[in-house]
Design a protein that fits this description.
The structure holds two protein chains of two kinds.
Chain A: E1 2-11, E2 14-24, E3 29-33, H1 40-48, E4 53-62, E5 65-66, H2 72-77, E6 80-83, E7 90-94, H3 95-109, H4 117-130, E8 141-142, H5 148-162, E9 166-170, H6 178-191, E10 197-201, E11 215-220, E12 223-228, H7 231-239, H8 242-249
Parallel strand pairs in A: 3-10, 3-11, 6-9, 9-10
Antiparallel strand pairs in A: 1-2, 1-4, 4-5, 7-8, 11-12
Chain B: H1 5-25, H2 36-45, H3 50-64, H4 104-113, H5 117-124, H6 131-147, E1 151-154, H7 155-161, H8 163-169, H9 180-188, E2 193-197, E3 207-208, E4 223-228, E5 233-239, E6 250-251, E7 254-259, E8 264-271, E9 285-294, E10 299-306, E11 311-314, E12 317-320, E13 326-335, E14 340-349, E15 355-364, E16 369-378, E17 386-395, E18 401-410, E19 416-425, H10 428-436, H11 441-457, H12 462-476
Parallel strand pairs in B: 2-4, 3-5, 4-7, 5-8, 6-9, 7-9, 8-10, 9-11, 9-12, 10-13, 11-14, 12-14, 13-15, 14-16, 15-17, 16-18, 17-19
Antiparallel strand pairs in B: 1-2
Helix pairs in contact in B: 2-3, 3-9, 7-8, 10-11, 11-12
Bound molecules: adenosine-5'-diphosphate and magnesium ion.
Chain lengths: ~250, ~475
């Protein structure tokens, strides 16, 4: 599904990603953990095609196709979805209108007709129920005045509506209380199948109790320094990152 | 003494020069320049009664004493008022025989706006063979209105057919000496619209200049007068979303609205005159005076979407004379490339419990300058007057400017005035967010701009709102990159 080979990336001339390798197969859930500033969000941005970051070496492949030269919207059309750590506000644009535009632009790119209104409504109803989203919420301006938790839940709602192949969830757990966390995790699990994949970025293991990863990677200073199974997350929770830092420098 | 051939020729030449002006009355266009004779000739040509001629002359004399205003935040080469021809008969002949001859860029824009082929021909000045259709539409339309006693005709027709109404109200809201451009307009106005809604009548349809026969083109000096008699209601649409190419550089219109007791007038404008090319050349100068007068319990709403013109100078205003009267101003002004706009409103509170609302949305892109200028004036007698103003500016790129000049003069302590202003930029993070959801940058900008303008777009009549939305997208095309 997603293959990253020796990826180096700069922002403003400073190297942030220093040779990342990652292989995510369909049906898998990978967790990327690491302390603040280690480059987790940068990795997500580079996969999604944010032009603030420059790839200096290596490549990102989706289903064998190189993404490096593709615009962010083209990557989205191919099924890349990023749940943002800090979702932006778009005043005056309702959640519904935004989603309708996103879905129809993607369909257009694939040469499909716009989604009929009744189908759209049915889908919205179904997915908003899955994520226990109040109908009133859908007519509010996108992210404007949303609480931290509402923003994150809205990101997952968009994911549910867009049904991506590859979903990258960047710190989706931050800002969610335990009940909301369960709802969101349940939503993600229900959307998960053998044909898609999820990359969960977090620095707490809490979320991983609910979205259980097949693999856990530790990102430190722009490199994946350790990979393992879900027990690695528990170990990190217990011992912090220092022992890994030491291991890495040895 | 017999004339020599030479002398005769000479004499004829000078005579022709001297009187050429009169012979020219019969022709299509007047010679350039402005003087009392020209003003009289315009009036004569239109078959106006002498009171109207006199009225024009007074305006002309006032104008000669006035100076072109300098205070607006715009710079442009002042028009040479003696180099303009002040009368041009409506062109009956089409400029082209088929659409193939029309500027493809113009046609492209028409297509994007979803304008029908017939419409395209009409707007581009191509001969339309199915004239019968538009005539019959207009006729049915007129019949419906006539049944309700509504008068909707050209101002020239009104001067002849309804002199008592015109005489009573013309210049009653915008006096002929009001300002430089209004005085000029009063002296030389070519044509425009007149509308009267009788007492207690609710006009059953949106009145649009567009439907009036012989009035598809916009004059250089248009004059509009709308009178809503007691307890009546009318919604009036002005302009057209299609780009208006006009060789007339200077446009100075006057619009007067009179809302008598308990009446309501909604006046919506979409203006899309040629803004000049990407370097800022050509383009229309639009200097408009629009004002409405509210009697007791009356209400006037101005809604405007301005995307065109090289230079715009425009302040639709309300005089809230009657107690409990309401004035509203909703505006979207878009400037791109080298466009300059200085627009806003004046709310003059004279009566008690009067209320005004101002929502202004300025969108600037390219190297344009967009200024909001608003005056809220609360007279000493206007107890419990209230105003709410909100001015939002949206910037695209680093080379454009947005400016807000709110003026507040409150002479009554009970006044409640609220003013809010925001300036925001379309952020790269917003665009990336949209891109990530599959929305390309062009569409993302359209989405963000529509969101920003929504409160105003919502005030437009439905069909107009859809067109205006498309127009916003087109005006900003290619403005980010
Ligand atoms: N747009 C940017 N401009 C400059 N520096 C950036 C930018 N984005 C990230 N960085 C820097 O890159 C490093 C990694 O940041 P980030 O990927 O956000 O880390 P994480 O998500 O793991 O906390 C940090 O040092 C951060 O300051
Ligand atoms: Mg981060």
């Amino acid at each position: 599904m997603l293959k990253i080979e020796n990826l180096h990336a700069n922002v403003e001339g400073k190297e942030i990603l220093k040779g990342i390798n990652l292989d995510v197969k369909p049906g898998e859930v990978h967790a990327i953990m690491g302390p603040n500033g280690s480059g987790k969000s940068t990795l997500a941005s580079v996969i999604a095609g944010n032009e603030d970051f420059e790839i200096t070496e290596g490549s990102v492949l989706l289903e064998g196709e190189e993404l490096n030269e593709l615009a962010p919207e083209e990557r989205a059309h191919k099924g890349v979805f990023l749940s943002f750590q800090y979702p932006v506000e778009i005043p005056g644009v309702t959640v519904t209108n935004f989603l309708k535009t996103a879905i129809n632009e993607t369909r257009k790119a694939k040469g499909l007709e716009e989604m009929p209104a009744n189908e759209m409504l049915k889908k919205i109803r179904e997915k908003s129920e899955l994520l226990e989203i109040d109908r009133k919420f859908l007519s509010r301006s996108l992210n404007e005045g949303f609480s931290g938790g509402e923003k994150k839940r809205n990101e997952i709602f968009q994911m549910a509506m867009l049904e991506p192949k590859l979903a990258i969830l960047d710190e989706t757990d931050s800002g969610l209380d335990i009940d909301a966390l369960k709802i969101v995790a349940n939503g993600v699990n229900r959307l998960k199948n053998d044909e898609n994949a999820v990359v969960v970025i977090t620095h707490y293991q809490r979320l991983l109790d609910y979205i259980v990863p097949d693999f856990v990677h530790v990102l430190l200073n722009g490199k994946i320094v350790k990979s393992g199974g879900k027990e690695l997350a528990l170990e990190l929770e217990e011992k912090g990152y220092d022992w890994i830092k030491q291991e890495a420098t040895v | 003494m017999a004339y020599t051939e030479e002398e005769l020729k000479k004499e004829l030449e000078t005579k022709e020069y001297e009187y050429g002006f009169y012979t020219d009355i019969e022709s299509e266009t007047f010679p350039v320049g402005l003087n009392e004779e020209i003003v009289k000739a315009i009036s004569l040509k239109k078959g106006e009664p002498s009171w109207m001629t006199e009225w024009r002359l007074e305006a002309y004399r006032a104008w000669t004493e006035m100076e072109e205003p300098e205070w607006a935040n715009v710079t442009y080469k002042k028009p040479d008022f003696q180099a303009i021809s002040y009368y041009s008969a409506p062109k009956k002949k089409p400029q082209y025989d088929s659409l193939d001859e029309v500027d493809p860029e113009l046609l492209d824009t028409f297509k994007k706006l979803g304008i029908s082929l017939e419409e395209q021909k009409k707007l581009a000045g191509v001969a339309v063979d199915v004239v019968m259709d538009s005539v019959s539409v207009a006729t049915t339309f007129k019949k419906t209105l006539a049944e309700k006693g509504i008068i909707f005709c050209s101002i020239s027709e009104a001067i002849k057919e309804h002199p008592e109404l015109v005489k009573k109200y013309i210049g009653s809201v915008v006096p002929k000496k009001d300002n430089f451009y209004a005085a000029l307009n009063s002296a030389v106005f070519s044509d425009g619209s007149f509308c009267y809604i009788p007492k207690g009548v609710r006009c059953p349809m949106e009145l649009s200049t567009y439907f009036r026969i012989n009035q598809a083109g916009t004059g250089q000096f248009e004059r509009t007068l709308v009178i809503a008699d007691e307890g009546s209601y009318v919604s009036y649409l002005e302009g057209c979303t299609a780009p208006m190419r006009d060789e007339n550089q200077l446009h100075a219109a006057v619009v007067e609205l009179v809302a008598l007791d308990d009446a309501e007038i909604k006046y919506s404008t979409v203006q899309n005159w040629f803004p000049g090319d990407k370097e800022g050349k050509g383009g229309v100068f639009n200097f408009v005076t629009k004002r409405g007068l509210c009697e007791t319990n009356a209400k006037i709403s101005w809604t405007q979407v301005e995307t065109g013109s090289a230079v715009t100078w425009k302040y639709p205003s309300c005089i809230l004379k009657g107690d409990n009267s309401v004035g509203e101003f909703y505006s979207i002004a878009v400037t791109n490339n080298y466009q300059q706009a200085d627009t806003g409103t004046k709310m003059i509170h004279l009566g008690k419990n009067t209320k005004s609302t101002i929502i202004s949305k300025g969108i600037s892109a390219g190297r344009s300058q967009n200024s909001y200028r608003g005056l809220v004036q609360i007279n000493s007698r206007a107890a419990n007057a209230r105003n709410f103003s909100q001015c939002d500016s949206l910037l695209m790129g680093n080379q454009c400017g947005a400016h807000t000049f709110p003026y507040i003069e409150a002479k009554n302590k009970t006044a409640q005035i609220e003013h809010e202003a925001t300036t925001s930029k379309i952020g790269e993070d917003q665009i990336f967010y949209c891109n990530q959801r599959g929305i390309d940058t062009e569409k993302a900008i359209a989405l963000i701009v529509n969101g920003f303008s929504k409160e105003v777009l919502n005030k437009l009549p439905m069909e107009f709102a859809v067109e205006a939305q498309k127009l916003l997208e087109i005006s900003l095309e290619g403005s980010v990159g």
